[in-house]
Amino acid sequence: MERLKIVVTGGSGRVGRHVVAALAGRHQVVNADLAPAVPDAPEAAGVDYVRADVMQMDDLRKAFAGADVVIHLAGLDYDWGCPSEAYINVNARGSWHVLQIAEEAGVRRVVLCSSISICGLQEMRPDWKPQTLPVDETHENRPVYPYGVSKQLAEVMGESFARRGTVEVVSLRPLAVILPETLGQYLEFVDAPDRHWLFYYVTAEDLAQAFRLAAEVPGIGGESFYIGADDSSHPAATLDWAAALLGGLPKVVDAAHYRANPRASVFSNAKARRLLGWRPVSDFALLRRRHAETRQSDMERA
Predict the structure, then answer these.
(1) 63 with 50: CB under 8 angstroms?
(2) CA-CA 20 to 30 A from 210: which of 23, 49, 216, 269?
(3) Residue ranges of the NAD-dependent epimerase/dehydratase domain (predicted)?
(4) CA-CA distance, 180 to 203, in Å (whole number)?
């Protein structure tokens, strides 16, 4: 495998640390962020750091010099509750800066961190429900919230750069990311009575491997991928709870898919499996059981 110089914007962040760790040792990795990772972070050893603000193009020119691939993770997260204009400014304009400077620097490929929010289905609006089950990358996108709109804008901008033929652009759309330290919070969220949601997830470890493959696998420029677990975080069969939650199932349902895995996710990862060779290893029932065992162990020690 070719050893690449990969610059990760936002490599000190919650997801960024896992992505950098997945790349370290295989490639030359540069973490381009506003601050370095904490000293005991798993990616700290053998990774270069350069201070970079994606809103400052000169910072990016320095950070991207000699890079083969840029993985763009820096931005404002949905969970932060930022003002609408901040999401558009940082997530959309910052992505433009990354794409423009990457093209100037002769970078081969930019991997954008998009989001499930691009489709608008996570907004759970009564006027916008899944048109198919499972939902895949051909499904229409209708975001209303500014975070989802910012991600849609970033993907559209990425497509424009890809059409120029000077830089490849790949967009990954992670589902709700579970980190080891946030599993408890996620469980509290999905276990709340009468939770009106679509019960999707991906672990940070699985997501990091998807970003690694998006940087390495040839011939995937111009593609977007949903990155999510095979299963749902709901304990019941997906078609059963989805019918109750949505007031019925869409006209297009892949019944064979849900017969093979009754708890399969609402979102398909088939494209990522086919083109990236990505295989998530998580199992939500196992995650739930391990969390309960850890809590029990902690209580006994206390």
Answers:
(1) yes
(2) 49
(3) 6-181
(4) 8
- Report how far residue 231's alpha carbon sits from residue 178's, in angstroms, rounded to the nearest whole number: 14
Contact 33, 11 (CB under 8 A): yes
Which residues make Cβ contacts (< 8 Å) with residue 25, sequence separation at least 6? 46
User: What class, spelled out in words, does domain 5-177+201-229+265-281 have in CATH?
Assistant: alpha beta
Neighbours of 1 (CB within 10 A): 6
Q: DSSP of 237-286, one letter per residue?
A: -HHHHHHHHHTS--SEE-HHHHHH-TTB-SB--HHIIIII-------HHH
Sorted by where each begins, the domain ranges of the chain are 5-177+201-229+265-281
- Per DSSP, the chain holds a count of helices (H) and strands (E) of 11, 11
DSSP 37: P
Residue 264 pairs in a beta bridge with: 231
Q: What is the pLDDT of residues 193-214, one digit of tens each?
A: 999 999 999 999 999 999 999 9
pLDDT in tens, 129-177: 999 999 999 999 999 999 999 999 999 999 999 999 999 999 999 999 9
Distance CA 16, CA 13 (A): 5
- Helix, strand or coil, per DSSP, at residue 19: helix
